[in-house]
């Protein structure tokens, strides 16, 4: 993305430069290119608000601002989708910050005044309410076991697609490392994608092994006609049939994974 200089140097020029942004659970950093040392580090607890920037500020589209105690960082995303994704994720992460702002300036401070309200002071209070983001008091009740089971089922059901994707970039990842062009998208970092697909495939395989072992153990320990599985209980019969079917079939994922 492109960012505008924050004016940390007293006599520095506030121009626009291409930078590589990296978000972790602790901070937001940017550097000249991927893998280089960060030029700036912004702790997440120091972000007061993340809002869109009005287009008339710099005559540029897809811009948003990360407001900090001393200054605001103005960033231009590559498109409106990327802009929304960054605003959403940063807003969610910083939603509970103790010093979060209630009002902000939707335009930039240029030539000695705020473009939105014409206030001359750079420290003038904001003139617009910040976005609400997540609803106050919103609670999400998640069942980790059920969610893991759902994710596992999705991977198993679509493992053939993952294998096709892995095969498509395998040769380029191993021998050339060039970009991989597929009908619907482009993989820029083929080697990292290939490595990730192998790790994902191995994880799904191990999880499937654990799942099958658990079903076998459950079937052995549950006696038909007991209190846990009374006679006529369809759930037990379905479980037993499922285990027999798995024993007679091969795993969809092979153990031989490339290193």
UniProtKB/TrEMBL annotation:
Q: Which SUPFAM superfamilies match?
A: PH domain-like (SSF50729)
Biological process annotations from GO: intracellular signal transduction
Supply the Gene3D superfamilies for this chain: Pleckstrin-homology domain (PH domain)/Phosphotyrosine-binding domain (PTB)
Tell me the ranges covered by the PH domain, including all copies.
1-95
Gene Ontology MF: a single term: zinc ion binding
The alphabetical list of record keywords is: Metal-binding, Zinc, Zinc-finger
- Its domain of life reads Eukaryota
PROSITE patterns attached to this UniProt entry: PH_DOMAIN, ZF_BTK
Q: What is this protein called?
A: PH domain-containing protein
